Amino acid sequence: AWALLRSSARAAALALGGVVLAVVCLDAVAWNLPARPIPPALALQQMTRGGVDAPATEEDVDSLMAATLAAAGAAPAQGTTVVWPENSVPASAHARIAAFASDNGVNIVYHTAEADGGAVYKKTVVIDASTGREALSNYKKHLAPDEEVGEPRDTANTADLSGHRATSYICYDLHYPDAVERLRGAQVAYVPLDDAAYGYLQKQFHAADIALHAAQAGTAVVAAATDGPTMAVNSNGVVVEELAGTAPGHIAVP
What we know:
The protein is α/β, with parallel strands linked by helices. The chain contains five helices and twelve strands. It has helices at about 1-30, 60-70, 95-105, 180-185, 200-215, and strands at about 40-45, 80-85, 105-115, 120-130, 135-140, 160, 165-170, 190-195, 220-225, 230-235, 240, 250-254.
């Protein structure tokens, strides 16, 4: 019996070693596979002044603009897109965000809410720096279980942005398998996130779902969160840039 137990343990150890080796090899293969290029982008990580789940104020918009200028520098790469976190930018700031994008030569992606017929719909807006106008927007289809405000609405818009096909979705939508079809066809998706109310493990699950669906769709994803995960994933599902921790900061790609 002891010999049989030792033999079984040895077989299990060998099997586990084989799995680990396979994962390492597949990861190495994924890193070296050719991926579609990610256009120049910055993703900002920043909490609102009000804290977890508090909507952005005009002062928060000022802070995001200042952080954008600091991250982009005096001469941002042509066609740079800056992604802001999911933070419900007030409607009163929309016009000046568009002017800011145009004046500084950077596309801006932000999250806001829209009232329509007595209902509130959360959406992401992409401002094209070359026109100072909205290039595309998409509504949040899947609301998180703890979201008390908002109604789901299904859209899957894409647009040409600085020479590439782009789309944009919000946070919880990237958990769901239907994200694959919504991502497919775009070179890159820009995604505002807010996982601040959840713990470390939930953020890791979210990051894993984003990477998986990016690979399945063949679409890169650049995500900006209030306190993580702020990351860039290429079209093979490989995380190419990631901001460590929950403090304010940014990532830049490529």
